Amino acid sequence: MVKKFDAVVGDILQNPQFAKLKQENHHGTTRFDHSVRVAKIMFWTTFHNKNYTRAALMHDFFFGKSTINHPHEAAENAKRITEINDCQENIILAHMFPITTTPVLYFGGWVLIVIDKLVATYELGRFKRSLDGEGKGYFRGKS
Fold first, then answer.
1. H or E segment at 44?
2. pLDDT tens for residues 70-117?
3. Maximum Cα–Cα distance for the chain, whole Å?
4. Of the candidates 82, 54, 84, 55, which has an alpha carbon nearest to the alpha carbon of residue 71?
5. Hey, how many other C-beta atoms are within 10 angstroms of the C-beta on 65?
6. DSSP calls for 13-41
7. Which residues contact 67 (CB under 8 A, 6 or more apart)?
């Protein structure tokens, strides 16, 4: 399964610009790890759909703080490192719908919205430092 995933997204994962996401904090983990986690789930749930998986991997391909414009930044950054088609671009641009106004045109866009929110919730609960600073995560409680 790993070889099939790597065959679909290996060029992106090996790209030095994309690898810089390893330095970006996101949901208590790195933006790189978040993006890979989302892409792997997309890969499995859409029966290895290449367009959907590549878009899922690049959906948060931006640097700095997240803003309402980050889907546009992610799409532009994706275009700088690889060729993306209309399907992939729409999925990246629409992944924050309905907060952003780009309409979802592909089934994979709806799937990404759900996967991204589920993964972000997991990451916040698993990795984000608790308010008391003990690093137990929001869903772990006190020992």
1. helix 31-45
2. 999 999 999 999 999 999 999 999 999 999 999 999 999 999 999 999
3. 49
4. 55
5. 8
6. HT-HHHHGGGGSEETTEEHHHHHHHHHHH
7. none
Q: Cα angle at 56 between 20 and 79, to 5 degrees?
A: 60
Phi, psi of 138, rounded to the nearest 5 degrees: -65, -30
Instruction: Find out whether 54 and 46 touch, Cβ atoms under 8 Å.
Output: no
Q: Domain residue spans in the chain? A: 2-126
Residue in this structure with the two tokens 């930044």, named with its chain if needed: 73
Q: Do 127 and 118 form a contact (C-beta atoms < 8 A)?
A: no
One-letter amino acid for residue 86 of the chain: D
**Tokens of residue 72, six digits:** 């546009």
pTM of this structure: 0.88
